[in-house]
Write a structure and sequence with these properties.
The structure holds 2 protein chains of 2 kinds.
Chain A lengths: L25 E4 L9 E7 L2 E12 L12 E8 L15 H14 L11 E11 L4 H15 L9 E8 L2 E4 L3 H6 L2 E7 L4 E7 L5 H39 L11
Helix pairs in contact in A: 1-2
Chain B lengths: L25 H11 L4 E2 L4 E4 L4 E2 L3 E4 L2 E4 L3 E6 L2 E6 L11 E10 L2 E5 L6 E4 L15 H5 L1 H4 L5 E9 L5 E4 L6 E2 L3 E5 L12 E4 L3 E5 L4 E6 L3 H4 L7 H4 L9 H19 L6 H14 L4
Parallel strand pairs in B: 3-7, 10-12
Antiparallel strand pairs in B: 1-6, 2-5, 4-5, 6-7, 8-9, 8-11, 9-10, 11-12, 11-13, 14-17, 15-16, 16-17
Chain lengths: ~260, ~290
Amino acid sequence: MSSRIEILNAGGYRSDGRRQYELRTINIDLFPQGSAADGFATLSHGLTQVSVCVFGPREAKLRSQTFHDRANVNIEVGIAAFSSSERRRRGRGDKRILEISQTLKSTFDPVIQSSLYPRSQIDIYVQVLQQDGGLLQACINATTLALANAGIPLTDFVCAVTSGVHSTSPLLDLTLLEENDLPNVTVAVMPRSGKVSLVTMETRLHVDRFEEIFRLAGEAGKIIHAEMKKAVKDRTERLVAPMQSLGRPATGENDY
Amino acid sequence: MFEFTSFRRPPETFSVSSPDNADADMDEDYEDFLESGETKLTWPGESLTSAQDYMRGHGTYVDNEQVIASVTGIVERVNKLITVRAARTRYNPEVGDLVVGRITEVQPRRWKVDANSRQDAILMLSSVNLPGGVQRRKLESDELQMRTFFEEGDLLVAEVQSFFGDGSMSLHTRSLSYGKLRNGQLATVPPILIRRLKSHFISLPCGVDLILGLNGYIWVNKHVKQNEREGEEGFDAEAVYSSRNDEIDESTRAAISRVTNLITVLVSHSIPLTDTILLDAYDWSLEQECDP
């Protein structure tokens, strides 16, 4: 490593004071501020912040994009010019943006039960507000939450986490500084079945190290899952409570 | 094995009724709930019960002989059928529902209507009342002047008539209480907050009429006198398909916007809308008004 900053010091602390396996603070906001979206989520992992709006299932805008047996899932990613330390405007056709949206699409394809909504369209708009490493992980987690809020049927949550390896010691939830220096993997897991929806690497990683950090990322995904579940539960409770207290109609023909 | 010394492991199970039950009796816990009929919340990927004892309904799927929730919401059981009703979702149409919609497109012999559902609804030319007698054959001339009945952007109230093969709904306005909407304002709310009522046409004593569409669109308009709305024999096409508002005096305008704002406020606290709640809220808001 040629970096002047110590990634992991002798005391076992990382540059931002975390331990090897410690995750950054997760902040989740599921209540939209004046957005007409069907589902909404803002999620931050430390200083990485992503906001996602989900619209649909709704009538497809273009007839050419409809499928007769399933919904068309359309994902658009935008990266704010002010999101990174170096101001940079990325257009719609930017390679990086297209890559992220394509990755998101392939991650969520097996999870969204799109066959329940033939000829419709589900639009997912991802907006990156701040970047400090783990961009893809934040995008995936925020999208899961927004989809769950929109009432779109999912087979499971998708929980993603980045992990890397510093010489022989694995690290979890990398910041931008660590991500630039270390070989890293982003893993998206479905916690219930334990299936993995995405594994992606942009760096070279020693094959002997792979299994270790892959497993570790899987474990960390479960921790993130618990946090996400808690946020979804809190929101659902707040939405349902007033309906209960004001008396639900008797279950029967009145109910649907 | 790895050590996860720095992880704080959050509790795995959440439940409204008993917050501190362990993982192990989760299944039993659900069984208990299914017997007791108490409210239970769930979210995607949560195992509800065994597929051998129960049938899966909407909002669930079966994997590994387990019924698993696929949406976030309330678990409901009818005998052996387990369904999950989403806390927030788009409108799920059912035949006979009253809906308020907006025309999005005029097509040959049909209109496309946005009704907050997963697909635009379809209103056939043959399912609207045309001028000159209710039971009349549709002529080519009617087809040519479809835009004189409904134009893009027009709001209408209709009933769900049937479904097409692909699940999209067909509407009809073959009643004198259905048709084009005017003299008012639209409020949009989550469909789950609108309950099935005996009548979805509500008249508030403050001179405001409400149409609570089951799809979450609410039309708040000036009160129309009963005999004007249902003009028996004299089906006046001019009036029914007119796009021009009547004269609305200032107090009615104020009342309409007050009711719309009340709906927005109630809905932001996810309170289900009924005529009594709206009326109480209206009176309360008038009391709070202090003239300087």
